[in-house]
Amino acid sequence: MSPELYDPVVVIVLAAIASYVSRGLGAMLSGRLDPQGSVVEWITCITYALMAGLVVRMLILPIGALTQAPDWVRLLAAGVGLLIFFVFRKNVGLGVAAGSATLALLTW
Fold it and tell me: Residue 98, exposed/middle/buried by CB under 10 A (0-12, 13-18, 19+)?
């Protein structure tokens, strides 16, 4: 690749195009999809798999500031987040918030 492709303006424009194309397709197709159908179920599974992969990546091979947190702190924060996730009927937002808060409190 040529260095011109790494120009910040080019990267921002390409990211915006990709974002708006996917949003446009989503808006066009949203009325045709059955919320209980197999396509939406597949998308949900992919979403959960991506999130699980990112969480495992952060726990096992952290980068940046997360490398300063000991393994036990990262694992405990993940455990607290998982516990809250299940206690509050699989509420992803509360689970992520609880895990993040635990990590922040234990590393502060």
Answer: buried
Residue entry with tokens 């999809």: 33
Radius of gyration for the alpha carbons in the chain, expressed in angstroms and rounded: 19
Q: Per residue in 74-105, pLDDT tens?
A: 999 999 999 999 999 999 999 999 999 999 99
Would you kindly state where each structural domain of the chain is located, as residue ranges?
1-32, 34-107
pTM beyond 0.85, yes or no: no
Is 71 buried (19+), middle (13-18) or exposed (0-12) by CB count in 10 A?
exposed
CA torsion sign, 60 to 61 to 63 to 65?
positive
